Structure formats: structure tokens, C-alpha cells
Amino acid sequence: MSAVMQQSQPEYEAVTIDMRALIDNVLARYSGEFSVFRELLQNSDDAGCDAAEIRFETTALLERNPEAAMDAGPHSLSDLETTNVAQWTFKNHGQPFREQDWLRLRKIASGNPDSRKVGAFGVGGCQTSLGSGAVLDCEPTLGFYSLFSVTENPYVSSGNKEMEFSWGEGGQLRYRFGVLPGAVTVDLWTTFKMPLREHAPMPRVSGLMKFLATSITFMVHLKDVAVFFDSRPVGRITKYLGQSKDVPIPEDLQRRSPKQIMMVKSVWQHRKSFQLFVFYVPTVTPAQPS
Questions:
Q1: Is 47 exposed, middle or buried (0-12, 13-18, 19+ CB in 10 A)?
Q2: This prediction's pTM
Q3: Average pLDDT for consecutive 10-residue bins of the chain (290 residues)?
């Protein structure tokens, strides 16, 4: 410190952070077609949820009066290839948010402290030793903040509480937190609403269902994922676990990792079966003869 600064003794001031730029930079490094759903599905499995729903909602549905919509009955299914969607809604069924979950949700880069889980509502990554000097770089976990890749104002409700985020001046992220109006019983469905920054058609059903099948294959708790366009089901995948079987460990297998961090105690084989339903088949216009 210079002599002048020592004499004047100016007070320390806080360093400002452009949260918007920070989140955008992180998201730019780890972008992907289904990154939002991958994070939400993984977080749902980490929380012990057994079922999830992905809903693609149009402006027409969001602006409908609920009572009038019930009287009118289900509306016709639009062309999913061309109809723009205004909001993504993700729901999972399981344990409602605890106080520590709400606290982590409003802290950037504060992941799940449970080291046994990949990540929940944080930004991080992991490395796992495979032995013989090989290291597996796990895919970074963006958690809740992956939602900002598609929305400006994510909204979360869980149990009898709700939280909404919005951007303020200088790229400052703000939130509102409170009790759901009229909440009498605790809802076991946690809901994430993402009003889209740019309206666009939902992803192709075939690609989305393939992604979901691959995702829940290696998940422990999540066994059922349903996809809706507005209020109409368009696809569903259900996983069934068969009887597990103990697999003998070869005697020449090195059970401990080189740094003694991990040890193989037992190996089990689990049989899994899946049911995949797709309720929407796009209309293919036959080619006109030239």
C-alpha cells in the first residue's frame, strides 16, 4: 500500500458482479439441446423423485380461463412441428423443498453438499478415478441456473411456498419468496415454470423421447416421465426394475483405486425394462410427382 493510501485510510468497498454475464458465460460453455431437462431430471433423481412431467404450453393455453377451459373440454392437438410454445413447465413428484433447498436455490454455485449425488441446483463438476491412471471427467452440473438459457423469469413452487426470479439493474439477479396463496395441503409436485425468452416449437418428439429413455436408464429413483403439449399427452416412458443378481468379483481384479479412494465391495446386476408410448405421429405430406 502506498504512503498516500496509508495516510488517507480509504474504506474498502464491495466488488460488484454482473451476475447476468457470469451466468451467461457459464451456460455458453455447457450448452446443449436438452441441457435444461437433463439438469432437472438429474436433480429430481437426486431428490428421490419417482415421476416427472415435461409440459410445452402455448400462449393460447396460458391465457385460457381455467373454468372455461374445463367446460370446453380438451382442445384439438396442434401441429407440433410448427406451433410455437410460450412456456416450458417441468414437474417432479417427491419430497417438497426443505428450507436448505430454498436457500441453495438463491445462491449461485451452491450445489448439493451430499457428495453421493451428482448435483442439485448448483454449478460444478466432478472427477472420478478409473484406475491405471485413467480419470473420468464427469459432465458439469449446471443445476437450476441452466433454466436461464431459455427464460428470463424462472418460477418455482414446492410444498406450500413459491419463488420467482427476475433481472434488475446492472445485471443483478433478484428473487421473491413467499407462501402460496390458498395453500392448505402440501403439494408433493414441485413445479418449475420457464416463460420462454423466444417462442419456438417444442423439440421433435422422437428426439426428446430418445433422450429421456437414455437419461432415466442410469437413474436410481426416477422411473416415469410424461410429456405433454398443452394439456394433451404426446409421450411417456416408464422404467421397470427386475430382480437383482449378485455377480461374483474376479479374484484378479484390483479392488482399490491407485490412491485408495474407492474400493469395489460388491457387484450387482439389475435387469431393467422400459415401456415407451408416443401418442403423436407427425403427418407426412407425400411428395408430389414432378
A1: buried
A2: 0.74
A3: 63 75 77 86 91 95 70 62 94 91 75 44 37 36 79 93 89 89 80 95 92 89 93 90 79 85 81 73 51
